Amino acid sequence: MLLSFAIATAVAACSSQDAAPADTTADAAPAADANALTLDESTLPPVNRFSADQLDTSKNACTDFGGYVNGKWLAANEIPGDRTSWGAFEMLDERSTAIQRQLAEQAAANDGATGVQDIVGDFWATGMNAEQINAQGIKPIQDRLDAIAALDSQEAVAEYLRTSAARGENFLFGFGPEADFKNSDMNIAYAMQGGLGLPDRGYYFDADKKDKLEAYQAHVAKVLELSGMPAAEATDRAADVVAFETRLAKVSKSSEEMSRDVSLFYNPVTPAEADKLTPNFTWTKFFESQGLQAPEMFSLAIPAFHQEVSTMLGEVPVEDWQAYLRFHTVDGASPYLSDAFVQENFNFYNKTMRGQKELKERAKRVLDTIEGNVGEALGQMYVKVAFSPESKARMETLVTNLSEALKVHLEGLEWMGDETKKQAMEKWASFTPKIGYPDKWREWTGLETGRDSYIGNVLAANEFNYKWNLGKIGKPVDKTEWGMSPQTVNAYYNPLANEIVFPAAILQPPFFDPEAGDAMNYGGIGAVIGHEMIHGYDDQGSRFDAKGNFENWWTEADAKGFSGLTDQLVAQFDAYEAMPGKKVNGKLTLGENIADLGGLAIAYDAMKKATEGTEDPMTDGMTRDQRFFANWATVWRRNFTDQELEVRLTTDPHAPANFRAIGAPSNLPQFAAAFDCKAGDAMVRGDGDRVVIW
């Protein structure tokens, strides 16, 4: 995982017009385009618009706002068998996936395809060729298994870790470029913790997760058996693998720790200093093996983790290393191998861990693979048929209006002193919005794909992407790059660039609707825009300055006041019970909750400013303010399987959706006024526990 994905904070009717103007000449008809694409909108799944007839008027908005807006919809919309959650985001993802499928099919059928269409077409054709994949079995990765079986010393293990990493197959730790925390204009190398097969370190120790650990060990045994190991030996070796990972887990940071202390990512050292910390895994050799000149400095994040890896290279028997490497090699490749491997991968990671009932159809799985390996290549095709210039222009207006509302909020803060406020305003002035798709597309020259092997294409793209990323180390940051593809239904804030990013696929109902009034759009995408802006001022984003550098710009008194306010929000979400005996982790979810609260507040003010002097249309008997808050809740309508919810409560920095629907509005007097709520109602927080931050 790239560091930007770890520290960037995400929120979680199409046009056939091109997103960018084509080159034309005045005196000649354009030549036929061999890569021309079309979109049949009639076959696409519907979008999820708010409708007043979905309201459950038997419920009181002031006491059960989530039930009032979403109760009927949630009861009527079960989770599809191939999913573990279902709501507004997932419905748009289905729509985006349907568009992507049309494009991939066209690319694969185009014998004259070039560039990104050739790449996408190769992935689609080989991924959909089940007969070829099943015939090849495990053969495409047999060379890797043979190399692992030949390891005969700890030194040989260390060398294998280096050579496999150079192919983009790093089993033990994350490694890649990101902006220097202290000089955000330049990329440096970061080495992160990793190596675990379970979602969080707690899965190896917590009593309430013991069943998942046991199931994981059984999964390890099954994968080793599928790889050709005798069943009895596979069972023994699975215990060794789990013991190996448990040792790594002891020195790993939890999801909560990593999400709530961004400084953990940054530990600048020289390669020589790093070598002293990890004598059995020298970083000077590692940089050389990756084709990199040893830098003056890089970030060795979570140094205790890397020290333990070095110790294990000296202490753990080679046979245990072989079992660990064999398992993770096969397990990582399983989604792209024959049916038995795919089914076992699904049985554990999707069914056991997250409660998914059915394996996704092959087409959806292949599109997931394309997204994970060459997503921006497909995105270049996506925006030609699925995102109009008009939508981008309207979004730019919304961003401007939200920015102005945020400015007013910042200027009016009573709890912040002038010195800190000046720095906050400088940060506000330097926000960079990105809407729809990149201004400059990524270059894919050099990636060789074909129709011979599905996993061959995956491995080629994996190595290509890894080397492409390594090429950024020691060079200026390219501020035009995106961390999400245009077809992703999401948005994010990157503190190192102080940028807010909104991919094309999220710019549809209920978030953004060209046919809807201001109330709906400000309650939807407007609040999302505000959310991403406020991330620049949440408990971690606020540790970066206007230039994206990790610098403290707070006075001691203001930092203390801010912490007191955020503690109130932690307490609010700690009190929400997500399922019997399991509550929301207010600290884990703090950053997102700050962003929801501030984002909704500034979106409301931006809406009032945009509609100032106009008559309230009273649509479907609802006021403009009521529809604003109703669409906010519509965005967060979502069902989860119990297993999915359990994983999210441990690892997800976002609170479960039903609490996001009610959490921020309950702190806003504007909500109480909109629905004529009274003191004492569940959705009305008194002066003593109402949280107001930004």
From TrEMBL:
<dbReference type="InterPro" id="IPR000718">
    <property type="entry name" value="Peptidase_M13"/>
</dbReference>
<dbReference type="Pfam" id="PF05649">
    <property type="entry name" value="Peptidase_M13_N"/>
</dbReference>
<keyword id="KW-0645">Protease</keyword>
<feature type="domain" description="Peptidase M13 N-terminal">
    <location>
        <begin position="62"/>
        <end position="438"/>
    </location>
</feature>
<keyword id="KW-0732">Signal</keyword>
<keyword id="KW-0479">Metal-binding</keyword>
<feature type="signal peptide">
    <location>
        <begin position="1"/>
        <end position="19"/>
    </location>
</feature>
<dbReference type="InterPro" id="IPR008753">
    <property type="entry name" value="Peptidase_M13_N"/>
</dbReference>
<dbReference type="GO" id="GO:0005886">
    <property type="term" value="C:plasma membrane"/>
</dbReference>
<dbReference type="GO" id="GO:0046872">
    <property type="term" value="F:metal ion binding"/>
</dbReference>
<dbReference type="GO" id="GO:0004222">
    <property type="term" value="F:metalloendopeptidase activity"/>
</dbReference>
<protein>
    <submittedName>
        <fullName>Peptidase</fullName>
    </submittedName>
</protein>
<feature type="domain" description="Peptidase M13 C-terminal">
    <location>
        <begin position="490"/>
        <end position="686"/>
    </location>
</feature>
<dbReference type="InterPro" id="IPR024079">
    <property type="entry name" value="MetalloPept_cat_dom_sf"/>
</dbReference>
<keyword id="KW-0862">Zinc</keyword>
<dbReference type="GO" id="GO:0016485">
    <property type="term" value="P:protein processing"/>
</dbReference>
<keyword id="KW-0482">Metalloprotease</keyword>
<dbReference type="InterPro" id="IPR042089">
    <property type="entry name" value="Peptidase_M13_dom_2"/>
</dbReference>
<dbReference type="Pfam" id="PF01431">
    <property type="entry name" value="Peptidase_M13"/>
</dbReference>
<comment type="similarity">
    <text>Belongs to the peptidase M13 family.</text>
</comment>
<keyword id="KW-0378">Hydrolase</keyword>
<dbReference type="InterPro" id="IPR018497">
    <property type="entry name" value="Peptidase_M13_C"/>
</dbReference>
